[in-house]
Sequence to fold (472 residues):
Amino acid sequence: MTELDTGARPAVDQHRDPLAPAALRFRRGRWIDGWNPEDPVQWEGMGRRIARRNLNWSIFAEFLGFVVWQLWSIVAVALPAAGFDLTTGETFWLISIPSLVGATLRIPYSFAVPIFGGRNWTIVSAALLLLPAVALAVCVANPQTPFPVLLGAAALAGFGGGNFASSMSNITSFYPQREKGWALGLNAAGGNLGAAVAQFVVPIVVTIGAAATLNLPLAGWIWVPLILVAAFGAWRRMDNLASARADFAGSAAAVREPHLWILSLLYIGTFGSFIGFASVFPKLIADQFPEFSTIAVGGASVSLAFLGALVGSLARPFGGRLADRFGGARITMAAFAAMGAVTVAVLGALALGSFWLFLGCFLLLFVAAGAGNGSTYRMVPIVFALRGGAAAGAHGAGDVTTRRKAAAALGLISAIGAYGGFLIPQALNLSFQTTGAYTAAFGCFIAAYVVLLLLTWAVYARPGLAPAGQRI
Fold:
């Protein structure tokens, strides 16, 4: 291994491990020089342990990011019961604005880790979650809070959505190529579960012991201690890698690649559907089946809406595994086919007025979207490897330029796909405002899934597109 030359010899602090390889050096501020996870001696010696420690705290911080990102999906639905006078359109804006801000923040967040350091930025990004949590608690305490103030507080929740990009950018630097998929899958799944946890916990804490009123401020306050733990844990236990670099050239090259935009469309269809429906599911249940909006359990209320985000999150890693075995394009096509068919069934359930059929169909929709998340994300490095002419094809890392473009594309695609979390609630809002029902929006979703299925087939699955013996 070649030792990183940083000029003056760095001071070694108390965190240094005496068993570290000679070229692995530790500096104050928990900076690590000479990190090379592809070196089997370094990796097996202590690299794996360091990487796993950073992964654990990254998952926790990202989990809280998703929690904060999705708080308004459940709080907005409860505001009328707390004395707030909101129109349907205003409620949809409170639900969707966190996704709009979060998707936009994912772009600068993806560059923050190499500029500031993974540990340092995790501390900052975790601490920033205090702003939306406290803002929510303060704003919902007073039913006279003006709507623009509520909207500003909801926009702050976008900080949680940005965390995904920086977290994934950080963890990918810690792991060797052969283990990146599993590590990034754990990181993503752990974060996505935050949406389900938020939708499960918040209805309980705001209703337990509340009698005839709701303790809505608790929806924000309860996360403050955990956010402080995440920031402190990142400060004490995470590390900065000196080898991480902001790849603006790689991003510029990825933007010029047509497949970036095609894959982004597919990711809007899969991840965008997941996060969009997760955000709006509590609202849909409250509108269409108000008697099932919450279910009394003891002295608290439980919303079944959390089941959607839960099954979608759990399905994501399986989508990646299936993509490894059968090809990402095939699994993505199957996901879109299932999403289209299930959405038709959702319309049928609404027409019949059957809540349990509606719930079952929507859970299947979440499973298909979650699996599509994993398969579409898995396609990105394969597509770029084939485009770069990598000799190993779908199972190879490609040359340096290809790897750089693929890494940059992953961050950009994750940002663009998150805009689906804004588009889906707003499409439903537009449908309701113009027709008084959600049928037109669901019809558009069905058409979109059909188009995306055909696009996937035409660009990535049509016979003869990939080199012989390889598949996307």
Q: What stands out?
A: The CA atoms of residues 196 and 307 lie 7 Å apart. The beta strands are 25-27, 31-33, 240-241, 295-297, 300-302.
